[in-house]
Write a structure and sequence with these properties.
The protein has 9 helices and no strands. It has about 190 residues and is mainly α. Helix 2 runs antiparallel to helix 3, helix 3 crosses helix 4 and helix 4 packs across helix 8.
Length: about 190
């Protein structure tokens, strides 16, 4: 299957030739797998990725052909699959929040950022546990999956204005929970 075909064309072709769907899998599976691993841990990422593409394959006839990029659709499915695994995610996040970070005795300039991130992780994990499932889904779709506001809106089935206002409130809420530290200091320049 030529790489020049957009996702919409691949999905349409897969209706009559199901093997065409493999090109969509090859194109996006690694990205969906990384997202699943970050949300639920590596032990569930393979299962989640398989569930996402199985659901996508089964629902491909309902795909909106006006969207040439299937990423938002796939992330929407992934978000639903992740919500089915939410209990494991909550346990993992709660465990991360309880982990104490030990300061290394010495470190060089290159490791300073890593040490700062490691120290921030338990506080950030605690902040994430205080968010609703919908808030956490939106934040992680933008922060981890790097979806634009429009793509996140499509993935979650909400208007783009809702995404913008929710993200603004989320930044304030997370910043407050971290005592003024903004882990998302660079405001995304999305749509």
């Amino acid at each position: 299957m030529p790489d020049t075909l957009d996702d919409s064309t691949l999905i349409a072709r897969s209706i009559g030739a199901p093997e065409s769907f493999a090109a969509l899998f090859d194109r996006h599976a690694d990205e969906i797998h990384r997202y699943a691993a970050r949300r639920l841990g590596g032990e569930l990422a393979d299962d989640v990725t398989g569930e996402v593409f199985l659901a996508a394959f089964r629902g491909r006839a309902r795909y909106d052909p006006s969207w040439p990029d299937a990423r938002p659709w796939l992330y929407g499915i992934a978000t639903k699959v992740v919500s089915q695994h939410r209990r494991a995610e909550r346990r993992r996040t709660a465990a991360m929040a309880r982990v104490s970070v030990e300061r290394p005795g010495t470190f060089d300039d290159r490791s300073a950022d890593r040490v700062t991130a490691e120290q921030l992780q338990p506080r950030l994990a605690r902040a994430l546990t205080r968010l609703s499932a919908a808030e956490r889904d939106l934040l992680l779709l933008v922060a981890w999956a790097d979806l634009t506001y429009e793509e996140a809106a499509l993935a979650l089935g909400v208007p783009v204005g809702t995404v913008r206002s929710r993200l603004h409130r989320l930044r304030v809420k997370v910043r407050r929970a971290l005592g003024g530290t903004d882990p998302f200091a660079e405001e995304p320049q999305h749509g």
